[in-house]
């Protein structure tokens, strides 16, 4: 795939329509070679050529192209085309925040580096939830369009992106109270992992992965990623075991993915496809032989020259809901259809579910709950804030479906959220998305909805600092008693210090939350021996918040569904202590590009530092800024110090004495990882604090 084709494809998938054709971006040797620095040019130019090779091949090797470009960037960071290409690699990789820096640098160096530069800056801001900036650059890009045959469709597509930004502004103002949990490295990989389906009575998770099966694994010509393959993760006591690829008949050449599970678990629907499209086929399980039959096509109606993808059966097995891109039947893009099983046991002609469900953009990932009364699907239309958002609708008494409801932020983001399913109890949802802090590409996450009336609590990353606020603020401090509830489950255990031995315990407060309501059902504290005892209403999943002065804040989900209510359960918790000299990286700290101005996204993490200092009145901190070794040492030193000072200013403005705070910029002098990979450089670019005294 050449660079024009690669970027054309990027623009095509934004809304399912081509926004604009991108001219090929070339890094010219004579412009890249620095007249001031001769040493290192040969190696840098070699990396440029290797990076171009991976870049031209497509999405699947953008990460490899990026690493080569970043190596060359150390030699000359003032080439507009190089900065632009690095921005593209970051934008469609795993760290979208960094894309904006490189796009802005490219535009500053050469405003006409690409006709799409304003569009790409807008995309960077859009995908990182900076909607006002995105709208500004989208409008500037739209005003720059020239008259040609695509101007109407391109202009309409830009208008749609602006609508998505406005949707995002509204949805973020009304966040859902949820906990999001990455399923971990037993399931997820550095590659795309998605389309989770529960099977065998919830004893296994079947999903699709685009990780290589071997060194000779083939790649798709469409996006240069490895072909889809089916994996299974065994589930035992609520934990997901190490995933492994399923063998025959799920090892079909090309793309193959499990896209649906029959309600009785006796058959699976799989997608089998090549580059131009694919079809849904059914695989039956034979219990006596403990094996699966060969896949068979469903019917002449469910299959076309276009792609038929995800599928879901109604509980009675009579209706099949599926997604098709058949241009003769859709409202535009891919739509959801339903086919009825006739008296001969054959699937009849599909019926489009209509404009209430299907927009003029793509719909995907249809899923029905076990009772058939709730349908989830992903859409690029409706009230999406960008890419695919997940929607929910309910079946009415007359058999019609309600208006789709956006699941809201932070479940949905301006990126793609796809393949939402539930377990058999419908207590927890599972979906796939690409987020910072994941393992790379799309990961599978579990979502627990805590209630819509309360403030948002997310666990894409752990919260930062622990501190029992009332211990200093309440003049009538008493140890809280467990709430008096109709208890059927006794839980006890210890809160321990991870830095100490088994005898090191922690005085802490614990709060247990019912995820289905968002209400706390029990609160207690440990005794001097670090032991807590509480009683909970029933064996189920609970959210747990733990606070202890001088320790990291703890928020997580514990699974007590398999605990016998007639016996006592035991769960220990481990907290990390803050000691003199301890360094803590401040996650989720963001600055305006190239500046030391904090963005609002940083306030939550910084407020946790404020609370920690309020509850530990004698603690002094050094706030430090760090960079990688890319660019000028002088510039990096100045910027890292200015950003550290900005953090100190924020904390001091909230009532913390400046005498308790110091700031320092270290540039690249204290790396925590190597600077020879993108991942290492990302780790080195950080803000952290160090405890100077307790």
How is this structure best summarized?
24% of the residues lie in helices and 27% in strands. With 694 residues, it is α+β, with helices and mostly antiparallel strands.
What report would you give on this structure?
With 694 residues, the protein is of the alpha+beta class. The protein contains 13 helices and 34 strands. The strands form 8 sheets. Strands 2, 3, 4, 5 and 6 form a 5-stranded antiparallel sheet that branches. Strands 7, 8, 9, 10 and 11 form a 5-stranded antiparallel sheet that branches. Strand 32, helix 12 (633-653) and strand 33 form a beta-alpha-beta unit. Helix 3 (41-57) packs antiparallel against helix 4 and helix 5 (80-91) runs antiparallel to helix 6 (97-109). It is globular. The chain starts with a helix and ends with a strand. Residues 1-12 and 451-487 have low confidence and may be disordered.
Layout of SSEs?
Layout: H1 3-15, H2 29-32, H3 41-57, H4 62-75, H5 80-91, H6 97-109, H7 117-127, H8 131-143, H9 151-172, E1 177-182, E2 193-199, E3 204-209, E4 229-236, E5 239-240, E6 244-245, E7 255-261, E8 267-273, E9 278-286, E10 291-292, E11 296-297, E12 308-313, E13 319-324, E14 335-340, E15 351-352, E16 363-368, E17 374-379, E18 389-394, E19 405-406, E20 418-422, E21 429-433, E22 443-451, H10 470-473, E23 489-497, E24 509-514, E25 519-525, E26 531-536, E27 541-547, E28 554-559, E29 569-570, E30 573-575, E31 583-585, H11 603-615, E32 620-626, H12 633-653, E33 661-665, H13 678-684, E34 686-693
Parallel strand pairs: 23-29, 23-30, 32-33
Antiparallel strand pairs: 1-22, 2-3, 3-4, 4-5, 4-6, 7-8, 8-9, 9-10, 9-11, 12-13, 13-14, 14-15, 16-17, 17-18, 18-19, 20-21, 21-22, 23-26, 24-25, 24-27, 27-28, 31-34, 32-34
Helix pairs in contact: 3-4, 4-5, 5-6, 5-7, 6-7, 7-8, 8-9
